[in-house]
Amino acid sequence: MRHMILKFWLLLLCGAMAFIPKQAAAGRSPDADKTRKHIEISARLGQIGSFSAKKAYLSGFRPIQRLVQGASGSVTGQVLGLDLSDIGTAYVEAWKADPAVEPGKEDSVKGEWDKGLALIDSNFTYRIDSLKTGDYYVAAWADGYDTQYFNGAADLFNAAKVTIKENETTANIDFTLAKPVPGTGSISGTVLDDSNGKPVPGAVVSVYAAGGTSAQYTFGKTDCDAGGHYAITGLKTGDYYAQVYADGFVWEMYDNAQDMRAAALVKVNEPNETAGIDFSIERSGMISGKVLGASGKPFDKAMVTALGRGFKDPASPDSAFYDFSEKFQQTVYVDSSGTYIIEGLKKGSYLVFASVPVEWESMELWYNQAESINDADSVAVRPGENTEGIDFQFNKTSGYGSLSGIVTDQAGRPVEGAGISIMRQSGGSWGGSWYYRYAVTDTDGTYIQERLPQGDYTVSCYARIGWQYATQWWPDAETENQARKITVMPDEPVTGVDFRLPLSRVNGSISGAVVSKEGVPLVNASIQVQSHPILVDPLPADGNGKTVSTIWAYANTDSLGRYAILDLPAETYTVYASYWEGDRFGEGWYNGKSSSETADFLVLAADQNAAGVDFSLNVRPIYGTVAGVVRNNATGSPIPGAYVEIRIMRSSNAGSMFMPFRAWNMNALTDGEGRYAFDRLAEGKYLLDVYANGAFA
User: Fold this and answer.
1) Residue 310: HSE in the Cβ half-sphere, 13 Å Cα cutoff
2) Using CA atoms, how far apart are residues 244 and 436, in angstroms rounded to an integer?
3) SS3 for 640?
4) Are strands 446-453 and 433-440 parallel, antiparallel or unpaired?
5) How far is the C-alpha of 336 from the C-alpha of 203, rounded, in Å?
6) CA within 20 to 30 Å of 57's CA: 7, 169, 320, 500, which one?
7) Tens digit of pLDDT for each residue in 501-526?
8) Residue 144 pLDDT
9) pTM of the prediction?
10) CA atoms within 13 A on the CB side of 42
11) 255-273 burial code (b ≥16 CB/10 A, e <16)
């Protein structure tokens, strides 16, 4: 239980942090971080909207309270404002405001968070016992009501702490819950185009409370009408952030801010309308260009980033560079032609750089061909304009090349899903290291493996079509020793590493039925076919002597004992059927033969449907019994307690599929009438020995 609760709170911490506005980190003390973390964790409570979700939130806790070790106290009170029918959904929860932490590890919880939970009873009262001494946050909530923190606070930011003392009850921790109702306040205004003063219809304006609460009616969103007007109603009293977004314009917070820290808050006082919250938004600018390698070919995996250099006049030589890690920074990837375009930029001056990922690091180049930010040229962006030609060319190589090709079948049709293995060995054959990469062909049979270090590689291809499969080394080789090395150089793609595999699309099939000797269809019997290339002309049509790997295919019979194996090429096959039923087994080969040595071959022509390949199996027990009586040879009377031993004759059972992997002697003692029995013996020949009264037979 202890570990489960700790794990729960750690997971809750991660989830809660996503809902809290970020604060500046500079100058915070460990205590401030710790207090903030407590607030972030607890804020999650107010975000849970339904009773079922609240119950899931409480999984891992006892339904009424959790006992703790050591000195403890209690908290009691009354919860008003509830309908009697909602009693079963109402809880009061208390959790310690200052859990123990290890010195130097203030961000990690040590042990449990002391916590208690109580269901509100029919008298609208509650009691939580067994709380360790200390300061606690206490909150009441119920399905369909706003969560309330002590003392009358709507969120944890304004909550008062409750002190629990040893062996004492802290009473009168009361709450008055209310069902959420829409606020009567509103925010309205107009969104205009900064370049011409015209309205921006369809612009989206959203507002949300600045106090960290997620209670209902403390946020809203709406679209502007044809005149650029908007109004968001039903808001509670409080301070709000407001922001606007429209296609082709720069995102903005009120008042003309790109960052929450610089945004102006909008005050709402019910039942009044806060009017005149207007936006004049700027058409977004763009930066575009190309990223090329030393050979002039595109770096299609490069990233390009624009960093804002302030929002002053782009021509100003003293425009200070801002740290835009939380401000205006845009990053895009170039396409296959090496082209990029960065949109949504505010007017101003930008520093632009391109980076190309390489193994364990990346190469960076600043505009205009500068190797550091200190030497970079500014790029001016104007509203609604595209600043073109911001190009980059990496003169030093990335250190990596690429290899590509196409895989086709014997008829020249593409093979999808073929596997390409690319290998390079460095050093000697003893103690050398291997570099290995793997690619897969797409729907048109092509593949490409990028980011290959310089070196000599051997390349192989494996693919299958239906039941056929083939492996080939480049170029046109059957073994690695016959393969030719491919040299890969930095920034020089190697193309045309193609494979034409000895595979073809085929439509041959073998089908039939499997029944018992009594004519009963055998359901789920197994059918296996295997090709024998040695019996086929070893030279295919192109006369180059290549062979395809042995084909092994299988199927199972349906409820009527029927089967069909499709997509078989022209070959000579053995066909085998087997069936299990408990301890009963039957098997057979094509044309009623009883063993693999005597089995007939089935010669399948191209696209032939060999129907009527049927089997009639003798399904019989796989185990037998040896039993008998041991008697006195002189008197004929049975001998009780005689020792009987049985052992398998391994040579006589060679080839039997039921011969045990290990054979050991089994023994038995005769009963009062001299009888013995050995059950569940596999098919075969056995030796029996008997010892009694000093005699042996």
Assistant:
1) 11
2) 51
3) coil
4) unpaired
5) 33
6) 169
7) 988 888 899 999 999 999 999 999 99
8) 84
9) 0.41
10) 29
11) eeebeeeebeebebeeeeb
